[in-house]
Amino acid sequence: MPRMTALFSAALLTAGLMSAQAHAQDQSQDPAQDPSATQQPQATAEDFSDEQLQQFADASQEIAVISQDYTERLQEAEDEQAQQDVRMEANDKMVEVVEDSGLDVDTFNAIGQAIQQDPEMMQRVQEMASES
């Protein structure tokens, strides 16, 4: 379950990244709800190849669309079970996109966390996304 939450959080951050807005700051996420955010060591741009960053940028664009669609569906869900079903379906689609890009979920999430801490890396990924 924490893996799903981390990917869903990364997808929401990615949606913000691709629209060049500080979406992560708009989301008042409680770190206690995402323990992976505090347990993983911080990665830097040097930890990732250009190919991985490009794969992240490409996957992020697709995930941004999925995230937007499923965020709307989540808001329309009538009860907790319906919301959980929407989250699970969204997560499955996002995992598929990440894996199809050539990355594993952990690497995707690590890049997503690293760009939050490194404005230059964020700019680099944004440029990669706009070129593809």
Automatic annotation (TrEMBL):
<feature type="signal peptide">
    <location>
        <begin position="1"/>
        <end position="24"/>
    </location>
</feature>
<keyword id="KW-0732">Signal</keyword>
<dbReference type="InterPro" id="IPR025433">
    <property type="entry name" value="DUF4168"/>
</dbReference>
<feature type="region of interest" description="Disordered">
    <location>
        <begin position="19"/>
        <end position="49"/>
    </location>
</feature>
<feature type="compositionally biased region" description="Low complexity">
    <location>
        <begin position="19"/>
        <end position="37"/>
    </location>
</feature>
<protein>
    <recommendedName>
        <fullName>DUF4168 domain-containing protein</fullName>
    </recommendedName>
</protein>
<feature type="domain" description="DUF4168">
    <location>
        <begin position="49"/>
        <end position="125"/>
    </location>
</feature>
<dbReference type="Pfam" id="PF13767">
    <property type="entry name" value="DUF4168"/>
</dbReference>
